[in-house]
Amino acid sequence: MINDRNADTWVKLELVDHVKRLGISYHFDKEIGKALHRTTNNSNLKGSLSRDVKGMLSLYEASFLSYEGEQILDEAKAFTSFHLRGALKEGRSNSMLFEQVNHALELPLYHRIQRLEARWYIESYAKRKDANRVLLQYCAVNASK
C-alpha cells in the first residue's frame, strides 16, 4: 500500500502516519523513505491550514522536533496550538480527531514513550470505521511475537 504510486498524496501520508503510530514502521523503513521522497518531490502541500484540523495537528506535532532558536517552528507551534484549541471549542472535528487533538495537546507525540503510545493508538485506531483492518491484524500478529 505504501508503494502504490497511484494513491492520493494525503492518503499515503495518512497511511505512513498510521504505520508509525501503530509501532510497526521499523518493518517498512525503506518503503516509507521512498514514499516520502516521492511525495515531497511531486506535490504541493500548501493550503488553508487554519481550517484543516488534521493538517494543523500534523504541523503541531512536527513543531516539537525543532532545535532551539528555530523561529519558524516556534511560530508554527504557537499558531497550531491556538487554532487546535479553537477547533476543539467550536467542535470542528469528528470524535476520533477530537480525541487525537486532545491527546496531542495534553502531551505531544515526540514526548511520549513509543510503545505506550502505540498501545493507545491501536485502541483508538481500532474504533474508527475507516480503520485499515489489515494493519490492525498485522499489529496483532506482531504483538504475539
TrEMBL record:
Terpene synthase N-terminal domain sequence ranges: 41-105
Keywords: Magnesium
Membrane-spanning intervals of the chain: none
Gene Ontology MF terms in the entry: terpene synthase activity
Cofactor: Mg(2+)
Any one Gene Ontology BP term: terpenoid biosynthetic process
Coiled coil (residue ranges): none
InterPro entries, per database record: Terpene_synth_N, Terpene_synth_N_sf, Terpene_synthase-like, Terpenoid_cyclase/PrenylTrfase
Protein name per Swiss-Prot or TrEMBL: Tricyclene synthase EBOS, chloroplastic
